User: Fold this.
Amino acid sequence: MDSRVPDLMRTAEALAREAGDLIRRGPERVDVAGTKSSATDVVTAMDLAVETLIRDRLRELRPDDGVLGEEDGLQAGPSGLTWVVDPIDGTVNFLYGLPVYGVSIAVVQGRPDPGSWTQLAGCVHNVPDATTWTAGSGAGAWQDGRRLPAMADRGLDGALLGTGFGYRADRRRTQGRVVSALLPRVRDIRRIGAASVDLCLLAAGALDGHFERGLNPWDMAAGALLVTEVGGVVTGLRGNPAGEAMTVAGPPTLVAELCEALEELGADADTEP
Ligand code: IPD
Assistant:
């Protein structure tokens, strides 16, 4: 294990918990502060406040590291490490009071994108119930201080999958078609609303797999490390790395079968066949 990992895990967890405290102290009624890629892609004042808090803390604690945050983009640092931050993953759930939304914080070495990075540590803190998942490269994955066991290998048939629907309206028809084609083969498909939490639930055995088109680095940086630390695979289609085009996560057999099914369905095509 890289000797920096334990300290980076502690920092990620401390920041995620402090951010969670800020959100829990916040107003009951949440207003939309703006929209981003589409009308459904919203940002609240709390998203902005939480990212500012995390950036301020990292400036004090780790001044040489870079930060890539969902709301404020990339600020590079000389150390080669970058903190990848989603201040509130599941903003729409947060807006509606649907109790699954988390703070996701990871630290990676190298370019902060899933095709290039080496993930060192990460934490996802589900704000409403304070469940906290932490992982470190070579140090395992943990839920509320309990080490998560290795994931059992299994196939796609009868699996419980998680997915998400990206905000781009032009992709939603394809996403609907893919879900309806997969449904007869699996136990069910959940759309929980916070990809980082889906990945942690997968690592904890509460889902068998997850697939999603349109994920950004901050949605997956921490959760994907939890999945790989329990023996899972996180990848894209046709041997590409996980990323915006497609992210498929789960045990090796399920991932291979799900990739094959998604490739056959043209799940990463932007135009309907
Ligand atoms: C979103 C959530 C959602 C996923 C979207 C993400 P945000 O993140 O993770 O589950 O389906 O693709 O963008 O915008 O709430 O931070």
